[in-house]
Amino acid sequence: MSVPGLPRLESAGLDGWLVRLFDAIDEANLPWITALVRDCEAVFDNALVDLVPSYTTLLVIFDPMRMTPDEARARLAETLAALAPDDEAAAGEVQELPTWYHESVGPELPRLAERAGLDVAETIARHAEVTYRVYALGFAPGFAFMGSVDERLETPRLETPRKRVPAGSVGIAGRQTAAYPAVSPGGWNLIGRTAVRLFDRDRDGFSLLRVGDRVRFVPVSKEELVRRGADVTAMEDTR
């Protein structure tokens, strides 16, 4: 971390500090961010409310009844001074998401193939052959931003977002990919659907995916997805 002026602490109100570690997205950032998450959990203890990691930053939310902003800043400064990368993050847990790639549930699949100059089968193969890293969680509970997709599949978000995207929908935006954990609005290019439950209030930590995890999308048939309990109802255009 030799970028001038970094890391930097930025106020996020009376109960939060934003730690800016890097100025560019890079997989090499992950061991530092996961290490800071681990260390903050230890040093803030019962004063910690939430930690929100992203590609380059960590938002630390604390209980102002247990700690003042100045105290929180001092603890973060001490933590950063002793920070060392988390070697275990280089591996990360591998999660497999069985996915049915089809235009009935992934209406942008044919367009992405045409844009890339590929047939649909090769487009699916290129998306499925990559082991992705989870860089950040956000937008909705359990929504994991993963990268990076094959450069030929890079596609900007839809100009007009959908009002309703079914849970489990797999999409691409830029060089990121993700799966929607619940029904929500969204503007990603949809290419398929997974049966995996990405957010569960009965699961420890709620979210299946965590920053630093590795993820593979595994192509399966419609019948396999139905067997796993997924909704395979064809998409409706809700833009």
From TrEMBL:
Q: What single Pfam family name could you report for this chain, choosing any that match? A: CT_C_D
Which InterPro entries does the entry link to? CT_C_D, Cyclophilin-like_dom_sf, PxpB
Task: Indicate whether Signal appears among the record's keywords.
Answer: no
Q: Which UniProt keywords apply?
A: ATP-binding, Hydrolase, Nucleotide-binding
Source species, domain of life: Bacteria
| Positions of the Carboxyltransferase domain | 7-209
List the SUPFAM superfamilies hit by this protein, alphabetically.
Answer: Cyclophilin-like, PH0987 N-terminal domain-like
Any one Gene Ontology MF annotation carried by this entry is: hydrolase activity
Task: Give the matching Gene3D superfamilies.
Answer: 3.30.1360.40, Cyclophilin-like
Protein name, entry field? Allophanate hydrolase
Query: What is the species of this protein?
Result: Halomonas salina
